[in-house]
Design goal:
The chain is of the alpha/beta class. It is built from nine helices and ten strands.
Length: 267
């Protein structure tokens, strides 16, 4: 993969023999990828929550094909996907995405074990599911056999029997809203209260739209897939439009086989 931004010597004079995610004919190692996507260092006041999203979209704006993101992804996109997970304290995901994508618990990876231990992190990130109804299959491995207990973010009006079912399955239920739904800002605070400040969301589009509308998204890692799908697939973010578009700045851009791997930060 070539680094297109920020412009450095490697960008200005690329080696024609560059390999995936690297220069000089080699592939970047996972440590190099982890350095490229590292979370901001804590300030003088200590760590504060930083919420990043990781999404993929086609040239015509589709975030899915046949209801799943895998058909528009690539091997290098999945390497970055795995790296972003390995850097996070918790992965925040919507219930519909859990159902459609067949979510499983995050796994510990030997390649990142020392890095996570040095950062005071658990061996693998927790999965936090945002759901109003708790309409989930609690017999799935995501709830019955995670390395780190799965979290449920829901509202105060959630059905008590569904909350009880989630807790019986081993999940930890966090209240992050006064009514049925979840308040994104309260969700971020609830996770930070557990010490989870390196936050990653993988969508889906409805959840990302809620996070954008609430103004709590700090960073977007967007893979632009060199594909066209037409159809009526969702964009990466859905729901009501914001009154004024939120401006983000380009932080970095990598390229391989026509795929663009971009990072945008809050301006």
């Amino acid at each position: 993969m070539r680094r297109l931004f920020p412009v450095i010597d490697e960008t200005a004079a690329p080696d024609p023999g560059e390999g995936a995610l690297g220069g000089a004919g080699r592939e970047w190692g996972l440590e190099e990828l982890a350095d490229a996507y590292a979370y901001p260092e804590p300030g003088p006041g200590g760590p504060v929550p930083w919420l990043r999203a990781n999404m993929v979209a086609t040239l015509d704006g589709a975030a899915q094909h046949d209801g799943r993101s895998q058909p528009i992804s690539s091997a290098s996109d999945m390497r970055i996907f795995g790296t972003l997970r390995a850097l996070a304290d918790v992965v925040v995901v919507g219930a519909q995405t859990v159902r459609q994508e067949g979510y499983r618990p995050a796994r510990a990876r030997d390649d990142f074990a020392a890095r996570r231990e040095a950062a005071g992190q658990a061996p693998a990130p927790a999965i936090a599911v945002v759901t109003a109804s708790l309409d989930l299959d609690f017999s799935l491995p995501l709830f019955t056999s995670p390395l780190v207990p799965t979290l449920i973010l829901t509202g105060a009006s959630a059905a008590p029997d569904r909350v009880a079912a989630a807790e019986k399955a081993g999940a930890r239920v966090l209240t992050a809203g006064d009514g049925i739904g979840v308040d994104p800002a309260r969700a971020v605070r609830a996770l930070a209260g557990l010490g989870h400040t390196r936050l990653l969301t993988e969508g889906g589009p409805r959840l990302l739209g809620q996070l954008v509308s609430a103004g709590v998204l700090d960073e977007l890692c967007l893979t632009v897939s060199p594909m066209l799908t037409a159809g009526d697939a969702q964009r990466i973010a859905g729901g009501p439009a914001v009154p004024v578009p939120h401006r983000f700045r380009l932080v970095s851009m990598l390229e391989e086989d026509g795929f663009l791997f971009t990072r945008y930060g809050r301006s």
